[in-house]
Amino acid sequence: MAARMACWSQPISEQANVFATQEFGWFREEGLDFTFMPGAGGGDALKNLVAGNADFAFTNLEPVFFALDQGSKLKVVYNIYPQNVFNIVTPKSKNITQPKDLKRLKIAVYSKASGTYHNLLVMLRSAGLKESDVEIVAAGVNNFGPFIQGQVDAQATTDTGLYLARQQGLGDVDVMWVRDVLNTPADAFVVTDETYRSRKDLIRQFLRAYRRGTQWTLDNPEKAAEIAKNYATDGQNVAQNVEIVKLRNASTVNDDTRREGLGWFNLDLLRQSEQALFDLELTHNRIDVTAVFTNEFVERA
Questions:
Q1: Which of 37, 184, 232, 282 is deepest in the core (most CB within 10 A)?
Q2: Is the pLDDT of residue 301 over 60?
Q3: Considering the domain 86-180 in this protein, what is its CATH number?
């Protein structure tokens, strides 16, 4: 049985748990012919899903809410990273330590279609600020050049983006984490409503294999980093892989998943996330998260 996973990115080292699942044949053990479909952003992964080119979308949640707002029939079946991984980085010399301090600053994001942009808006909202209160610049993925050169005052990025920038000589910075304001899950697995209704066996088999690879990677980050070398486009530096895998492992678990099982959604938190996007006018219709997000496929330890 085919299991086509449309991803938001090329195969990169932070997806070491997927590579481990492939390496050890755990998809095959579930009777699945797994395909990794690279993409360029969560919206790209969702487009492949809705078009019927993929069975699962590996995507951040903002494009999911946008697609639901526009009428797409989707079901979100697994919480990949329950910990929000986005942050705002500022030079320590500027002493910018609270969201309210961002007012009137020039802030770089990857793009206005990226999670860095949407999470920056959430951070601004927490301080009563709007997009018009700052100047937002699209700098490209993991491009800290304008920040390092002093052309912008702040950089919206992710935990792995921050790690890589520090390896490249970022310097002394302050970091504000979006999770301290609203801990929206970073990524999830999404299927069409039709797949949810008619192919639950496929969903269970896929998630069982994926969960197995995830738990193995949580237990064996160094070995997972070695496996990533053979699959990831950015995976040749094993020491770097180890650090990135550890960051992803940290975002994979929280108190809810420790209690309920890997992949668990906190629906109250998702209601807050839906409210934030509606307040920011990024969505225009209210979305019932209980009708879209499910913990049906979580397997408790």
A1: 184
A2: no
A3: 3.40.190.10
